[in-house]
Amino acid sequence: MAVTDWKKSVVYQIYPKSFNDTTGNGQGDINGIIDKLDYLKLLGIDYIWLTPVYRSPMNDNGYDISDYYEINPEFGTKADFKHLLDEAHARGIKIMSDIVINHTSTHHHWFVESRRSKDNPYRDYYIWKDGKGGPPTNWESKFGGNAWHYDEATDQYYLRLFDVTQADLNWENDAVRREIYDMINYWIDFGMDGFRFDVINLISKGAYENSPKEGKEFYTDGPKVHDYLHEMNRATFGNKEGFMTVGEMSSTTLEHCIKYTKPERQELSSVFNFHHLKVDYKDGEKWSEMPYDFIELKKILFSWQTGIAAGGGWNAIFWCNHDQPRVVSRFGDDSTEENRIRSAKMLAITLHFLQGTPYIYQGEEIGMTNLYLEDISQYRDVESLNAYPIMLKKGISEAQAIRILQQKSRDNSRSPVQWDGSLNAGFTTGTPWIDVTSNYEAINVEAALADQESVFYTYQKLIQLRHELDILTYGSIVPALIEHPQLFAYRREYEGQQVTVIANFSNETVEWPESFNIAGKILINNYKTVGQKLQPYQAVAILK
Ligand code: TEU
């Protein structure tokens, strides 16, 4: 049953390049998604978030768009895309597409023009500055190196917060904003049901000054970002009933996220923030080795849960996406098959009872693990390939750098979806663009569907519960046992009802805390029974 209230919906993220290949070229495509819609219907999701399928040189797998109005031929045609929308809609599934408007590819014709001369009409579509005996400021790119790239043709630098082939757009320019709103309206008319906006809180740059750190403070949640989002809302999707938007917010704050999502401000419906996914960064450094800090993980998630609710905003809730390692390898336990299954279910239960819109990343629903590539030649991700030499330069050994990539690389979640136990996990008949995870013979969709006890059916059940029980959408959240070293626990409360969630994040049995009354109806449990003690990775939700 399709839900009518967008707040009750569950989103499934598809990274098309790794989803399902129907042409044999080793890369997934739009027709491959159509072929799997019945599977997604069985899972029960409401929306698909499709990462970018527009024309792109694919240096950053589509986050470098060279034409917003065309589909990348590697993925299919516009007719295929229309077909996908129709087939999804016929099954009650909506589609949110990804809009990347902080930057374009340097192959975009705007940039090709812009770089030609200082007086080109497209010059001010991007951010060009004179050097100061070197780059204009010391800001660092998110993908390593200085954020300014020198261009000989006009002896100036352009800003690129990501790869050198991703030039930041100049939102100060009215013409740029108009072009963007026209493009968004084009896709709304095409039949889109929602959008995910890439790094949307970086669009408003403040002063171009040197920073004591990497420069984030000058462009994160910048001075005009709320004005721009409000303007965009009014000019595009704002009056479309039930249209869902989610903004990806880099290094943002709770205060800003309340503003981005408070309905009366007319900006966005919901936000992703990443603070809870930095609990395994040593001193804030992603490329480091550190066991994750469990108590910190809870504290961050809870502060966003209660904070957003108090401010009247709305969270997107998630463990994984195409930029993150696989959650079962990160906060769960993939060391044995038994622990993998238990901990994948535990993580699902812990997340899906929180408040906000839950996101499931392709393969998460069968408990896919990290890819664990062993040699740098096997890596494909531009961020990882930029980071590797930087790590070596810092004195990190090759062996340690690979160990770090095995934990943190974005390629971990970009390996092909494991459909069955046949060659290449049933993803392609050709050579996959990136290696298939070696455990595909045991972990795959076909095997998961055949086993009523598989991780898949836990996700299916959780989606059903979200649709059925209003308390999961509207209930307030009451964190519990925050300092407990092994248990993740909270309550939801709504109209006299209470749901209690308790999960054991450890591989040991743990005493049931005295303050926890277990009377009530068990909504879900990843073990057969509930006893005096919580079993390793046990997670239970109880309704009273
Ligand atoms: O990601 C934004 C971002 O800053 C991170 O999540 C990032 O990918 C980084 O790896 C964290 O270490 C978005 C997209 O999701 C990502 O795939 C793109 O590469 C990026 O924007 C640029 O468009």
TrEMBL record:
Q: The Glycosyl hydrolase family 13 catalytic domain covers which part of the protein?
A: 13-414
Annotated Gene Ontology cellular components are: cytoplasm
Give start-end of the signal peptide: none
User: Which Pfam families does this UniProt record tie to the protein?
Assistant: Alpha-amylase
Superkingdom of this protein's organism: Bacteria
Q: Which GO terms describe its biological process?
A: trehalose catabolic process
Q: Which SMART domains match?
A: Aamy (SM00642)
- List UniProt keywords, sorted A-Z: Glycosidase, Hydrolase
Enzyme Commission no: 3.2.1.93
Gene Ontology molecular function, alphabetical = alpha,alpha-phosphotrehalase activity; alpha-amylase activity
Catalytic EC class: hydrolase
Q: Which InterPro entries match?
A: GH, GH13_cat_dom, Glyco_hydro_b, O16G_dom_2, Trehalose_TreC
Q: Which SUPFAM superfamilies match?
A: (Trans)glycosidases, Glycosyl hydrolase domain
Family from the record = Belongs to the glycosyl hydrolase 13 family.
Q: What is this protein called?
A: Alpha,alpha-phosphotrehalase
